[in-house]
Amino acid sequence: MKHNMPQLPYAQNELAPRMSAETLSYHYGKHLQTYVDNLNKLVVGTPYEDMPLGDIVRKAEGPVFNNAAQTWNHTFFFDSLSPAPVAMPGELERELVKHFGSVNAFKEKLLGTAATLFGSGWAWLVADKDGRLSVKAGSNAYNPLREGFCPLLAVDVWEHAYYIDYRNRRPDYLEALWELTDWQKVARRLEGTECNVYV
After folding, report:
1. Among 39, 71, 123, 178, which residue carries the largest CB count within 10 Å?
2. Alpha carbon 105 to chain centroid, angstroms
3. What's the count of helices (H) and strands (E) in the chain, helices before strands?
């Protein structure tokens, strides 16, 4: 099974000024392309050769896992962004209030976790099998599928995600990312209609 680059649901200049075309050119066009290319080379002749991407993420170790997870994570991340503001649906807002106390408390938890993650990695909003929401984070190619969670929103805090636009100002990047989030897609994932799109 050949893994392909995902198509962006927007032009590379449409997220500016919060995320520049130059950032997307490197982040999407070079970093993600490298993960996809490496994954396709690494799986040849292995049990992962014909395995769906989500299964590889769950089962692989070492370089195969790293490149599969980074392919999955970035596909999910880029698909969660929108050039036009997307209001948070009421049902999602109610669930965030239920599990975090308020939308603002959730924002502080998610962005605070992402801001303080040491080094490179990912922060996530996830749901467990019982529908409970929480924030998870981990270094490098961390993906919550391996722990049985349904990913709802991904926050990339590798430096290549923000350094062109924000240099070392990770919190400023995270605030911009909040404004770029397509909350309708997050809500659909929570409803279960898109939870397994990339799995």
Report:
1. 71
2. 20
3. 9, 3
